Amino acid sequence: MPKKSVPRPCACTSIKKLSRVLGRVYDAALATSPINVTQLAILRCIDRSKSQPLTHVAEELEMDRSSLYRALDPMVRDEWLKIAAGTDARSLTAVITHKGYRLLEDAGEQWEQVQTRVVERFGRRKWAAFVAEVDRLRGCANAPEEENL
Amino acid sequence: MPKKSVPRPCACTSIKKLSRVLGRVYDAALATSPINVTQLAILRCIDRSKSQPLTHVAEELEMDRSSLYRALDPMVRDEWLKIAAGTDARSLTAVITHKGYRLLEDAGEQWEQVQTRVVERFGRRKWAAFVAEVDRLRGCANAPEEENL
DNA sequence: GGCATAATGATGTGTATACATCATTTATAG
DNA sequence: CTATAAATGATGTATACACATCATTATGCC
Question: What are the residues whose beta carbons fall under 8 Å from the beta carbon of B82, sequence distance 6 or more?
């Protein structure tokens, strides 16, 4: 029986390439704000996860905990948010400041423009289907390796 | 006429999340080699772009030139490749060493395993279609903004 | 040839991301 | 209750990525 060929191209490399392109385009669109697209995503996630421990935010964003903590540093420094005690004695939670909310609004408008432009070009209908496949691929990658079952 | 809603979720954030997951999974699969998936992609690209200027490699990978140069530093330090004069007096080119080729082989085997595992789960047929959409989205994002035509 | 412009690299700075490791605190097993 | 394990954060180190800027070397136009 002929051995199946390895499927190409590299899933990781393809997505990283796309990630770089989108990052540049979205950051360029947000350039009038001091915030970039990663920080916007974090801010939005914190807004959705009020009083949740930071670990929860990291999980939502599929980030390593330490990556999130490092990303928060400049945002705390610039007073977009502050760190407060959580429900636990060990956990902390992030709280968005007034400045942070203002940024969320301002950057949100810029984001809407670039997001609409990109997705309209791609096709709204196809976009919904594509996002579903993105999520499914994430699951395929994340699923534990079922070794010798 | 009702204004159309902004399509969600954020294209950039969705892809960055997927990128983080895939990066972790592929890097874990390559952990027995000293090379990570980004470096593997660069090495492969250099292999395909023999005697081309570094700028060309950066373009292929959708990377900023400076990002590529920085990424090459540890690879040159560890002697996976060396930098040689290009066809120009101004351009340089990267040359893979024996060590680099050995790594390309060793890591290639690990890569095949994780790539096959992830794509088989996703479905080979669907994978081909998905890759096409990834490329199309990249084009949609990269296309210049047609302002006031 | 001479000048303006492109291409190519190099470098300073700043954020993004992860892994390993350590300390503290909570939860769990016995 | 105690010993162990798990959760949460903090930090050291390393790579990933981009923008702005500068120097050098082509290229094109006159």
Answer: B76, B94, B95, B97
